[in-house]
From TrEMBL:
Belongs to the TRAFAC class myosin-kinesin ATPase superfamily. Kinesin family. The keyword Nucleotide-binding applies. Residues 422-622 form the Kinesin motor domain. One of its GO terms (biological process) is microtubule-based movement. GO terms for cellular component: microtubule. InterPro entries: Kinesin-like_fam (IPR027640), Kinesin_motor_dom (IPR001752), Vik1/Cik1_MT-bd (IPR031852). Keywords: ATP-binding, Coiled coil, Microtubule, Motor protein, Nucleotide-binding. This is Kinesin motor domain-containing protein. GO terms for molecular function: ATP binding; microtubule binding; microtubule motor activity. ATP binds at G508, Q509, T510, G511, S512, G513, K514, T515. Residues 111-156, 192-310, 346-408 form a coiled coil. The keyword Zinc does not apply.
Length: 622
């Protein structure tokens, strides 16, 4: 619709450009109507503007009539008449040409219009073609789909047929089965009767079993009660066991050392036992051998007795023979040879018996010896046990003595420190710094007296030729290292670990080296009193942990500057002073002699690394 409209507009535009509308409509209508209604086009005379006759064209016949018109003049010389006739004819021809032009215009417009409609029709046609091709494709797809469905349906139909066949076959089979089942059912009914009979018997038995079951359940409940009682007892005994286990673990520790000794003893005992067992085994073997030999001996004796009896009978026979017929002497000799052989074997066996008896005696002696060594080992073991007990007692007493000695050491150490003075004042001289103090370097206004009583304790200052002497508990000259200073302080740190309160503070004018002495500078040799003290505290507390001591350490750091207390560990302390404004740092003394500052941040410390980080934080805050 929209496309068509556009085309029409285009046509109009084309029209607007090339065609004048006014006269053409009349011409068109004249053409369309085929001139049947006689609508006439009026054409005026043109340039002349004279009142000429109006010529009308209504169709092709008018034009042909005009062309067929002939000159009317009779006289060839009547030029005037002929000229008038000619001009008239020319006018008519002009009108005819104009009519033709108008007609052509109309045709052109018509052609234009038809072309535009044809374009529109073409477009519509193309559209329709596209629609048709789409529809065709859809139909093709639908057709394909339908064919596939048809195929699948055919397949399923085939399957259904096969299934039906199978079902018919199975039905046949089932019928046969049912018949056989009916026959078997008859048999089974007979069996059922038998089984019901048996079932009755079984139900009676079941009743009996249920009765016994009831009785067993009652017994079971009684057992459960007994069990709960036993469990209560068990829990009680478990507690006692846990107590005993604790004791046992304590015992075990002491036993471990003893076990080593015990093990060595046991090894000895085991070796002796094995030797004893060996001896017993040997003895047993001997005994068996002796028994064997004895039985053999018995047999031999029996044989001998038998042979003696035989000899006797033979002798009797011999006598008889001698008596009766004086049998041949050969027989007699052979018999005597036999007898002598028997005697020889008998002697040999007697010898064997003797050697075996000797062996038996030897084995019994060996056994006795083994018994004696076993007894000895046992007595040695008992002695060792007694010794171990004695050693344990001595160890306990030694431990007790150590604890006592430690207590005494603490007491003595702190009395020594007290004797040295509870308040001690040290003096440290700062070396001249190369950049700022170089001006007065050559004067050396400080000297240290070297007399026995004042060495290391006194310092002399020269000012305007006058000497001023000062004495302290200790004087550190300008070459004294951080280590030297700390050696003097370390005893105080030990006192702190022993539970005494210790305070170390530095005093002096700005630039005199307070911070250097207390904190020091990075580097192992440059560390000051605070990091060294903390290292010592952690080292000593760790070594005392093995003796059963446990130390909890907390640190807080504050600075008193212009009479105001500042918490060096407070968060945001360095950047924002307002943060700490709300807190009141006041010094408090409690009845136990402890001095604390309220609102200070207290940090738990577990290693010297913790303290190092705290010190870094504090120095940042300053
Ligand atoms: P304070 O804290 O008393 O104002 P510092 O500890 O800051 O003084 O010391 C001032 C300067 O002197 C620092 O540069 C420091 O390194 C140096 N200094 C102080 N004592 C010693 C010393 N015993 N050996 C070397 N340099 C020192
Ligand atoms: Mg300082």
């Amino acid at each position: 619709m929209w496309v068509l409209l556009q085309k029409e507009n285009l046509g109009n535009a084309r029209r607007g450009m090339g065609v004048k509308l006014g006269p053409r409509r009349n011409v068109l209508s004249a053409i369309n109507n085929g001139g049947a209604h006689g609508d006439a086009v009026s054409v005026d005379g043109g340039d002349g503007g004279s009142a000429a006759a109006v010529i009308e064209f209504s169709g092709r016949e008018d034009v042909e009539r005009l062309l067929a018109e002939k000159m009317k003049g009779k006289c060839k010389t009547d030029f005037k008449g002929r000229a008038e006739q000619m001009s008239e004819y020319i006018k008519k021809l002009r009108a005819c040409i104009r009519w033709y032009i108008d007609l052509e215009d109309g045709y052109l417009a018509e052609q234009e219009k038809l072309r535009s409609t044809m374009d529109a029709e073409n477009d519509r046609h193309a559209e329709l073609e596209v629609q048709l091709s789409n529809a065709l494709q859809e139909l093709k797809a639908a057709n394909l789909d339908l064919t596939t469905r048809c195929n699948s349906l055919e397949e399923s139909l085939h399957k259904e047929k096969v299934d039906r066949m199978l079902a018919v076959e199975s039905y046949e089979k089932e019928r046969q089965d049912r018949e056989s089942a009916e026959t078997s059912r008859d048999m089974l009914t007979v069996d059922l009767e038998r089984v019901t009979h048996e079932a009755k018997r079984f139900s009676e038995q079941l009743k009996m079993v249920q009765d016994t079951n009831k009785r067993l359940q009652e017994y079971n409940t009684s057992l459960q009660q007994y069990n709960s009682n036993l469990q209560a007892d068990a829990s009680k005994s478990g507690e006692t066991i846990s107590k005993l286990q604790k004791e046992k673990s304590a015992m075990m520790e002491t036993m471990v050392s003893l076990k080593d000794l015990n093990n060595s003893m046991k090894n000895q005992l085991d070796s002796s036992r094995t030797s004893q067992q060996e001896a017993i085994r040997v003895k047993e073997e001997f005994r068996k051998e002796v028994e064997c030999l004895r039985s053999e001996l018995q047999q031999v004796r029996d044989d001998r007795d038998q042979s003696v009896a035989q000899v006797n009978t033979l002798n009797v026979e011999l006598a008889n023979c001698k008596e009766i017929a004086g049998q041949s002497t050969e027989d007699c000799e052979s018999l005597s040879v036999k007898v002598s052989a028997f005697e020889v074997t008998c002697n040999m066996q007697q010898e064997q018996i003797q050697t075996l008896q000797k062996q038996l005696a030897f084995a019994t002696e060996k056994l006795k010896l083994a018994d004696v060594t076993a007894v000895e080992v046992m007595t040695g073991y008992q002695e060792q046990k007694v010794k171990i007990k004695d050693l344990e007692e001595r160890l306990a007493s030694a431990e007790f003595q150590i604890v006592e000695a430690d207590k005494l050491r603490k007491k003595l150490h702190n009395t020594i420190l007290e004797l040295k003075g509870n308040i001690r004042v040290f003096c440290r001289v700062r070396p001249l710094l190369s950049d700022s103090d170089s001006s007065g370097a050559e004067e050396a206004p400080i000297s240290y007296p070297t007399s026995v009583e004042s060495a290391g304790r006194c310092i002399d200052l020269m000012n305007q030729g006058q000497r001023f002497s000062f004495s302290y508990d200790k004087v550190f000259d300008h070459v004294a290292s951080q280590e030297d200073v700390f050696v003097e302080m370390s005893q105080l740190v030990q006192s702190a670990l022993d539970g005494y309160k210790v305070c170390i503070f530095a005093y002096g004018q700005t630039g005199s080296g307070k911070t250097y002495t207390m904190m020091g500078q990075p580097g192992i040799d440059q560390k000051g009193i605070i990091p060294r003290s903390l290292e010592q505290i952690f080292k000593t507390s760790q070594s005392l942990e093995s003796q059963g001591w446990k130390y909890c350490m907390q640190a807080s750091m504050l600075e008193i500057y212009n009479e105001t207390i500042r918490d060096l560990l407070a968060p945001g302390r360095s950047s924002n002073f307002e943060m700490t404004a709300g807190k009141q740092y006041t010094i408090k003394h409690d009845p136990h002699g402890n001095t604390t500052v309220s609102d200070l941040i207290v940090a738990d410390v577990f290693s010297s690394a913790d303290v190092t980080s705290l010190l870094a934080k504090a120095s940042q805050s300053r």
